[in-house]
Design brief:
The chain has 360 residues and is mainly β. It is 14% helix and 51% strand. The strands form two sheets. It has a 14-stranded antiparallel beta barrel. A two-stranded antiparallel ribbon has the order 8-9. Strand 8 and strand 9 form a beta hairpin. The protein starts with a helix and ends with a strand.
Length: 360
């Protein structure tokens, strides 16, 4: 017990010293996303980098090299765009669909990442590039973007007795953001036509943040977790149009979660989770509707250790997923829905993602 308390004290003090900023770029684990953004107390080292650092203590060795993902945001709207009209310069029909995409919402996201976990120590590199929508109505445009991030963390577990295990973890994140000024639909089409052209990305900000997490794991498969995410004081960001520097406040959140996972007959596994995200945000508006908005839940069924089916609810919005694992090849398809406003039902957008990775 003395060793546990000493480690806990040093761990908290050392990581708190570096909590000076925040990052909004959090490439979450595919299982976590498909299960309604829940499962922070479940096993899986992939959750350790951006969900709950304590998960880094689950495996002695895990290597993902590489992981590639293609995501199409506002999928149900994008598939109705008459792409055949582009050749006929029929921009009115295209704008009629794009006018639905109000706000700043990702519609195309290409991701590449790699990670290594070795005896609790973990390092990951992530990159993302794609397009955001900009504006609303017929004035909608597109914003090309690129994000790069790196994470370094450590997780450790302590067996208190035969029925109880405590896991602790911490992760430091750095990330850089690059954006282009909004580009009109006609201009974007011209970039890919014979007239040519180029897209100029501008550096907007560099961030640093910290996550701390702990998990209480019982022998019967039950688990409970607490995570502090995006610890910091805020960061400066350069406006891509005016060049002015803006101050963004920290996205600091306190998240709690519970889960249960068991394997039956050596070929059938069940995972279930119930998480409550952003306790701080809920405290600002402690209503029943907001309680449901911050509550996420999910379920996963594993068959023969190779096929997994997932579903969940994130703030009332559904998510679905399936993954197929053949030796070291992991193929996943995810359908998720997120709210891009402060209120449920105001601006929900769905995303279809396909992910391929090699995991050793």
């Amino acid at each position: 017990m003395k060793r546990f308390l000493t480690f806990l004290l040093i761990f908290i003090l050392s990581f708190s010293l570096f909590a000076v900023s925040f990052t909004s770029y959090r490439p979450l684990d595919r299982e976590y996303r498909a299960m309604g953004s829940s499962g922070m107390s479940l096993k899986g080292v992939g959750k350790g980098f951006y969900t709950n650092p304590a998960a880094l203590s689950n495996d002695k060795f895990n290597l993902v090299l590489p992981s590639l993902e293609l995501g199409v945001g506002s999928f149900s709207d994008i598939i109705t765009i008459p792409f055949s009209s582009i050749k006929g310069d029929d921009f009115d029909s295209i704008n009629a669909v794009l006018s639905k995409l109000t706000g700043t919402i990702p519609i195309l996201d290409l991701k590449a990442s790699s990670s290594l976990v070795l005896f609790g120590f973990g390092v990951s590199f992530d990159a993302s590039a794609g397009l955001y929508t900009s504006g609303e109505g017929l004035s909608v445009g597109l914003i090309p973007f690129m994000k790069v991030a790196g994470s370094l963390g450590y997780g450790h577990g302590f067996d208190i007795n035969d029925n109880l295990r405590i896991e602790l973890g911490g992760v430091a994140h750095t990330s850089a953001f690059f954006y282009s000024i909004p580009i009109g639909i006609e201009e974007l089409v011209g970039l890919f036509s014979s007239s040519g052209g180029s897209i100029g990305l501008k550096f907007t900000n560099f961030t640093f943040s910290m996550d701390l997490g702990t998990t209480l794991r019982l022998q019967n498969g039950l688990s409970f977790a607490l995570a502090l995410s995006d610890m910091g004081t805020g960061t400066d960001s350069i406006d891509i149009i005016t060049g002015d520097t803006e101050k963004f406040e920290s996205d600091f959140t306190i998240n709690i979660g519970s889960g249960w996972e068991r394997v039956f007959w050596k070929w059938f596994g069940v995972k279930a989770s119930l998480d409550f995200c952003d306790v701080v945000g809920f405290a600002r508006d402690a209503t029943f509707a907001n309680f449901l908005y911050h509550t996420n839940m999910g379920l996963k069924l594993n068959f023969t250790k190779g096929l997994g089916l997932m579903c969940g609810l994130k703030g009332g919005y559904p998510s679905l997923g399936a993954d197929l694992k053949l030796w070291v090849i992991d193929l996943s398809v995810l359908y998720t829905m997120d709210e891009y406003s402060e209120y449920v039902g105001y601006n929900p957008r769905d995303t279809l993602s396909v992910l391929l990775r090699l995991e050793f």
